[in-house]
């Protein structure tokens, strides 16, 4: 009886041992399989990361190339804008010159500050044998007109008649002719320009005013804040 109990006890022990070994082998296999799966997943993830990294590097290279191209195009635009700016300045200068020439030619209406110079015959002197010694002649008018143009006058008129680049003034007895139109004394010479400059130029010591006064011509000068001259008609 005792011998049977002993055998039976050994079977139980062996059974427990085999059970534990089986469990350990199953756990080990499961663990090994998990590690293998994990290793396989890690390899795929690494390949995916590498692919994404390569794509990022490629995109960065394309971005740098596009940025370089953009910089070059911006430089070209700046060069074009600079050329256009220079051309615009040239056209502006040409337009200014054209406007100035039109003013001198009397082709456009002109308005601005300026001066009015009046030349009148000197007082009658019965002791003076030659009447020409106290009346205004064309050379007196020329002195004033030339000084005004030299001092920067943009436009000049005589008794309201605008002068042009081809105008002429001649004496005809007691009157003068401006481009064929007769004007009696006194002669009002009007000029548009910097009033202070024009006035100072005419009033210089020993200048135009002093010369005319010495020749018995009555000389008066006034500054004017606004003078308007209409364009020449006809030719």
Structure notes:
The strands form two sheets. The protein has a five-stranded antiparallel β-sheet with strand order 3-2-7-1-8. It has a three-stranded antiparallel β-sheet with strand order 4-5-6, with helices on one face. It is 56% helix and 20% strand. The protein has 235 residues and is α+β, with helices and mostly antiparallel strands. The termini are far apart. The chain has four helices and eight strands. It has two domains: 1-85; 111-228, Protein of unknown function DUF881 (Alpha-Beta Plaits, 2-Layer Sandwich), CATH 3.30.70.1880. Residues 49-90 form a coiled coil. Belongs to the UPF0749 family. Keywords: Coiled coil, Membrane, Transmembrane, Transmembrane helix. InterPro entries: DUF881.
Keywords:
2 domains, three-stranded antiparallel sheet, Alpha-Beta Plaits, single chain, disordered N terminus, 4 helices, alpha+beta, about 240 residues, five-stranded antiparallel sheet
The CATH H-level superfamily of the largest domain is Protein of unknown function DUF881
- The percent range for helix content is 55-70%
The overall strand count is 8
Low-confidence parts, pLDDT < 50 over ≥5 residues?
Answer: 1-8
CATH-defined fold name of the largest domain: Alpha-Beta Plaits
Average residue pLDDT = 80
Q: Can you list the strand order of the major beta sheet? A: 3-2-7-1-8
Main β-sheet, in a few words? Answer: 5 strands, antiparallel
Query: What is the overall shape?
Result: rod-shaped
Secondary-structure element pattern, one letter each: HEHEEEEEEHHE
**In what range is the share of β-strand residues?**
15-25%
CATH architecture of the largest domain: 2-Layer Sandwich
Family: Belongs to the UPF0749 family.
Pfam families: DUF881
InterPro entries: DUF881
Coiled coil: 49-90
């Amino acid at each position: 009886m005792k011998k049977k109990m002993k055998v039976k006890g050994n079977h139980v022990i062996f059974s427990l041992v085999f059970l534990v070994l089986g469990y350990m082998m199953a756990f080990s296999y499961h663990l090994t399989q998990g590690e293998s799966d994990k290793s396989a997943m890690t390899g795929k993830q690494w390949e995916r990361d590498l692919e994404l990294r390569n794509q990022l590097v490629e995109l960065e290279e394309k971005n740098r190339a596009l940025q370089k191209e953009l910089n070059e195009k911006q430089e070209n635009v700046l060069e074009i804008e600079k050329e256009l700016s220079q051309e615009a300045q040239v056209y502006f200068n040409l337009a200014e010159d054209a406007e100035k020439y039109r003013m001198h030619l009397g082709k456009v209406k002109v308005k601005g500050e300026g001066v009015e110079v009046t030349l009148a015959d000197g007082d009658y002197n019965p002791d003076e044998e030659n009447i020409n010694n106290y009346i205004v002649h064309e050379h007196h008018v020329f002195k004033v007109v030339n000084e005004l143009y030299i001092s920067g006058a943009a436009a000049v008129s005589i008794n309201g008649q605008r002068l042009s680049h081809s105008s002429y003034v001649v004496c005809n007895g007691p009157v003068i002719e401006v481009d064929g139109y007769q004007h009696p004394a006194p002669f009002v010479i009007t000029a548009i320009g910097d009033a202070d400059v024009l006035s100072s130029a005419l009033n210089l010591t020993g200048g135009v005013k002093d010369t005319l006064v010495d020749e018995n011509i009555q000389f008066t000068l006034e500054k004017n804040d606004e003078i308007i001259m209409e364009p020449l008609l006809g030719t």
